[in-house]
Amino acid sequence: MQHAEITGWGKCVPPAVLSNKDLMTFMDTTDEWITSRTGIQERRVCHCNFSDMAIVAAKRALAAADLDPGEIDLILLGSLTNDSYCPNTASIVADALGARSAAAIDINSACTGFLYGLHIGTNLIRTGAHKKVLVIGGEFISHYMNWSRRDVAVLFGDACGAVVIEATDEETGLLGASIGCESDAKYAIQITNLGSAYSRMTDDFLYADWNFEGQEVFKRAVRAMAQACEVVLEQRGLSVSDIGLVVPHQANKRILSALAKKVGLDEDKVFINVHKYGNTSAGTIPVALTEALEEGKVKPGDYVLMASFGAGLTWSAGLVKWSNRVTPLTETDADLPPCEKTALEIIEAQIKRYEERDKASV
Ligand code: UT7
After folding, report:
1. Taking CB atoms and a 6 Å cutoff, what residues make up the pocket around ligand 1?
2. pTM of the predicted structure, to 2 decimals
3. Which of 81, 238, 324, 327 has the most CB atoms at less than 10 Å from its CB?
4. Are strands 42-45 and 189-192 parallel, antiparallel or unpaired?
């Protein structure tokens, strides 16, 4: 049977840092509230296009796998903040990489976009339909942020990550997965005025806005991710003590503590970087996985457990058996264009735009 080894990994986090103190300059919030409720200290703001981050993350993953882009036969890109809907962003990435033999598919399942992509890509390799797949996950969520919404705006950030998976006879890569959707609660996270269900004949169309039921999502996230983790462990006949590292979706540190408790996981085994980046949606797992590898936290042969939850409300868990290689084969100097502005300067016009609309509607 064919398996799909993760042979390359890479991340791209934009350089502009938006700290909790920066948010306090224009929003009624405190560093104490954000840190104690979420664990988030800062997040990044993208100064270019989403595809620029995806291309850099992909180039780094390809370098780690020492793979020529021409050998990739499928690109799966998880994101809800694509450059455009036509053309799809996976095509933009394919062209920039020179991945001339690759089919290119965007996956919009929000925070689960990367794990959904890893599941799909792995199974297409298992069937023999594809051999070398690039799976990307990331978000440019600041582009759609309403900075007047303190209950939402403090939570999110921009970043992207990618992995290369390749066909192998070795029993490695994603060995177990469980994915699903609590569609009955689909509007618990909703970005409005974005999509063909919204009239373009009103001024509202210019303002993406958010429905966000934080507490409902919190409860569902813990329950669904815990159940999915238990399912994938059972699929392989493993217990939590067999897990070397957990690389979960990074939405809120409190969610991760609750998840660890519910599944019986040792919190020391849970990789956390939400304090640095906030919730980067489909970007959290590939970025965290790359950092875990960079920090030597993934050992050869480790079982790595991943779980995610987000808009839709989609959920997923995956169990990866890591191969023997935990270091990149090569590196690249690919990077984003230089950023001349601070994070506050990048979002300044958007903050004003929403403030003015709010004033006009009073
Ligand atoms: O990727 C998956 C998607 N997202 C998630 O998984 C997020 C899941 N939810 C959460 O992480 C948490 O529910 C939040 C962090 C969003 C909120 O934490 P909470 O402990 O559930 O707070 P809350 O919604 O109960 O809000 C408590 C209070 C409210 O004030 P009142 O009504 O009690 O006076 C809010 O208005 O905190 C207020 N508040 C804030 N105060 C200062 C909300 N946002 C802020 C803020 N700064 N940024």
Report:
1. 29, 33-34, 37-38, 111, 150-151, 154, 189, 214-215, 217-218, 221, 251-252, 255, 279, 309-310
2. 0.97
3. 81
4. unpaired
